[in-house]
Write a structure and sequence with these properties.
This protein is mainly alpha-helical. The protein has a single domain (65-412), classed as Na+/H+ antiporter like fold (Up-down Bundle). The protein is built from 21 helices and no strands. The protein has helices at 3-25, 27-33, 38-49, 65-87, 92-95, 97-122, 127-136, 142-149, 152-157, 160-189, 192-231, 237-241, 243-257, 262-274, 279-306, 310-316, 318-330, 333-339, 348-356, 362-375, 379-405. Helix 6 runs antiparallel to helix 17 (318-330).
Length: 413
Amino acid sequence: MSESISAQINLALAVFGGLVVIYALFSRFFKERLLISDPILAVLVGILLSPLVLNWFAPSNWGNQEIILLEAARVAIAIQLMSTALRLPSGYPFRHWRGLGVLLGLIMPLMWLCSSLLAYLILDLSVWEALLLGAVITPTDPVLAATIVTGAFAEQNLAKQIRHLLSAESGANDGLGYPFVLLPILMLNRPQGEAISHWLLEVWLWEVGAAIVMGGLLGYLAGVCLVWAQEKEIIDKQSFFTYTLALSVGVLGIVKLLGSDGILAVFVAGIAFDLKVESRDRIEEEKVQDSLDLLLTTSIFVLFALALPWQEWLDLGWKGLLLAVAVLLLRRLPGMLLLYSLMGLRRRADALFMGWFGPIGVAAIFYANLAVRDTGIEEIWAIASLIIFTSVFAHGITAVPFTKLHHQPKSDN
C-alpha cells in the first residue's frame, strides 16, 4: 500500500471519527439551537474536504465513483431499514395496514407522477427520462426520516401515530421504489413489449414478490434461532448485540445474490424478526443499530458531499433550483392533504406535517447511481443530487421548528 493511500485512509478515519464524536457530544445543541442535523453537518464537512475547497478527498480518484456511491448507499440503507423495523411496535404493519396501504398504494404513485411531471415541464427531458428522475426521488428516505422521528425531542412533540407511520412508510417504500425505477430504465433500454413483460414478470413477481417472501422467511427464522439460543443459554452478550446488524447485511447479500430486491427484503426481515423476539430484546438490538446509524449517516453524507457535481449544477441554472423547490413543495403535500383521512389522521395539521416531511436522501443516492449505471444518462445524477442537497438542508433546518409548531399534547401520544 502506497504512503499516499495510507495517509488518505488515516485522514478519513480521523475525519469520520472526530465528526461523530463532536456531534455526539453536542447533538442537542446542534439540533435544537443551531437547527443543524447530523446529515447537514456531514454535508458541510464533506464540502469543506471536497475538491471545491480543501481538496483533501476526491471519490473520482478512488475508482468508479458511481459504484462507490451505489454500494455505500445500499449498505447504509439496509442497516437503517433494520433499525426502522426494530423501532416499530411488533406487528405494526399488520395492524395498521390501511394507513400504510394508502401511503404505498396511492400516495407513492402520486409522488412519482407529480415529480416526473415537474421534471418534464421544467427541464428538457424526454417522458421516460422524466419518469426515471421522478422514480429516483420518490422514496421517503429512512436515514433522514430517522433524524425527524427519533429521539427525546420527537417523542415529546410528535404523536406516536405520526412517528410510526413515517417510519413504516420510509422503510417500505425504499424497497418498493425499485419497480418504479426499473420501468423507465427498461423502456429506455429495450423494445416496449419486451420491457413491459420483463417488468411485470421478472421485476414484480421475482425481484419484489420473492424479496418479500425471502425476507420474511429469513427474518422469522433468525428470530426463532435467537429465541432458541437464549433458551439453551448458548449465546453470549457480545454475539447477541451484533445479531441484527449481521442479519441486515446477510439478508441484503443473500437476496441480491439470488437476483431479488435486497433492500426490500431487509425491511421485511426486520418486521418478521420482530414477531418472534421479546420487547426487551428488541430494545437492546435497537440500541446497537442506532449507535451504528450515526456513524453510517455521517459517512454516507460526507461521501455524498465529496461527489457533488458543482459544474453540472451551474449548467442546470435557475431551472434546476426551481425544480428542487417545486419537488419539495408539490411532490407529496397535495396528495397527503387530499387523502389524509383515509390513513386515519384526524387533523389537517398532521397531513401538513407528513406532507412536508417526506425527505429525499440516501435512497435517492442509491437509485440515481443505479439509473446512471444502467442508462448512461449522467444528467440524472446532476439533477437528483441537487434535489437531495436541497432536501437535506430544507428538512434538516425545519425539523425542530416545524415539530414544535406541530406539537401535540401528551394525551395524543
